[in-house]
Amino acid sequence: MSRRIGVFDIINVLLLALVAAAALFPFIHMASVVLSTPDHVVKNEVGLWPRGFQLDAIKAVLSDQRIWIGYKNTLIYVVLGTIISMFITVTGAYALSRKSLVFGKSIMLMIVFTIMFNGGVIPFYIVARGYGLMNTIWAMVLPNALNTFNLIIVRTFFQGFPKEIEESGRIDGLSDIGVLTHMVIPLSKPVLMTIGLFYSVEIWNSFTGALLFLRDASLHPLQLIIRNMVIVGQVGDIVETSTASGQHVVLESLRYGVILIAALPIILVYPFIQKYFEKGALIGSVKG
């Protein structure tokens, strides 16, 4: 029996199509500018489709060593930071989800308090400097290792586990760590993959910490390098620049090319974890 398509379904599809088009338009426009010839870019004649065709802007971006240094640093920060953040979040959320935890409610209240109030940038900088994090990779992964919102989501998810699961594990001789690693985590893939994506994207897009703590250019993440490139490209009335091969490339094309290349890894990774994201994004927020 075929399902009838009503007016509500049609309106839903149209609205979602408009939202998707609005989200995709910036990427399509930037790609068109990058692939268009300089004359059309300077005259602002590029819309959704490239005018002319050239790869000089892409070649210029890929030939810039700063991009590859930024990629390497960012990948290190993302992998190391996500591992640390997930370890703290999962272990903390599991402990806080147990009703037997002494002063559990008081600890949770203090954690929630940090959502509404924080010390500000200057105390944050002073504390990080006091711990010797300046000009180290740890400055990019430790100060923001725990996101309170993510912790609450995982804790709420863990609270929804049936007590029988934990009891069966203890009958088999498992400790708290054994129950967590052998029973809870394997059953929590959707929410953990979602939270891991949140942490990874947050670290990937972060440049504020690098501005505060990193003075050595060899440690700069990709987003800070892109910020510097975009700002430098906006200074003055220069509209073209020369690449290493002597070709002329419009600065707007260079900026858009850098932005696209920086966003590409996240865009490519997301489809592979989309099924987990759809399941996990709301699980922790609707239980308990």
TrEMBL record:
PROSITE patterns documented for this protein: ABC_TM1
Location of the protein in the cell: Cell membrane
UniProt keyword Transmembrane helix, yes or no: yes
Gene3D superfamilies in the record: MetI-like (1.10.3720.10)
Keywords associated with the record: Cell membrane, Membrane, Transmembrane, Transmembrane helix, Transport
A Pfam short name: BPD_transp_1
Membrane topology label: Multi-pass membrane protein
Transmembrane segments: 75-96, 108-131, 137-158, 254-273
InterPro entries: MetI-like, MetI-like_sf
Domain called ABC transmembrane type-1: residue spans: 71-277
Annotated family: Belongs to the binding-protein-dependent transport system permease family.
Protein name: ABC transporter permease protein YtcP
Naturally occurring in which organism (per UniProt): Paenibacillus marchantiophytorum
